[in-house]
Amino acid sequence: MKWKGLAIVLLVFLSCCNKNNSSNNNVVNPPATSGFGYSVTFDSTISIYANSNFNFPFFINVDSGDINSNPLTANITSLPAFTTCSPSTLVVTELLGGVLKIKVGNLAVGTYKMQLVINSTKLGAKSRNLYLKINPLPDYSSLLARTYTGCYDFCTPINSLTYYTSVVEKIVDTPYKISISNIKKLGSSFVVRAWLSNIVTIPRQTIGPYTIWGSGTFSKDGRAAFDSLYTMTINDTLVNGVDTEYCTVHVQH
Q: According to CATH, what is the number of the domain 141-251?
């Protein structure tokens, strides 16, 4: 009786420990009564920005039986708006896992509940909670706010090259928004407003006789003397009356 009591206590202890998995992993062990059993491990929270992609890996451990005779399929359901997953269904055999590519569009900041579904012919479909966390983008407006003395624009169809100094300022009380002055050396009063996300966007706007719009990128300046600073490259359209120019704007030190 003494040993039987100890065995019961040990089983209860092991059962409690088995439930205490890391919050970053979701491990499920289906019953092996069919002669086949498996467990699946994955990070239950995907933390990314909107308008980005994520390769979601998961791992299968065969506890009993042969997975080649009992292939599994995996898919993600309850996807939020502007979100897709490919392939729509992934067959899992001897590779013991796989990768599903999640593509997120313009999704609002927040946490969205999805389901990772693993399906087995013998064991049926098992759903596990999966959370998509959309983080706010970092605001680079303060880092980009500088006086840039090495700016230049190349414009077609007249193939002109213009050098100038531009002042970039953060718009007070408006996150992710900056102003860029003196593009194409049109004067300090020629001030363009732009939005920052993972790119820089100049929405269509009219300044005096000019209408301008475009988009581009910003990144760390790769030159050794400026490696702690940033640079922007913007492709824009500049219209003045019947004249239209297509310019590549380089805002740099």
A: 2.40.128.420
CATH 2.40.128.420 in the chain is located at: 141-251
Instruction: Please give the class, per CATH, of domain 22-135.
Output: mainly beta
Q: In this predicted model, what pLDDT tens digit does every residue of 127-174 receive, in sequence order?
A: 999 999 999 999 999 999 999 999 999 999 989 999 999 999 999 989
Taking only the tens place, the pLDDT of each residue in 182-208 is: 999 999 999 999 999 889 999 999 999
pTM of the predicted model, to two decimals?
Answer: 0.67
Report how far residue 103's alpha carbon sits from residue 241's, in angstroms, rounded to the nearest whole number: 41
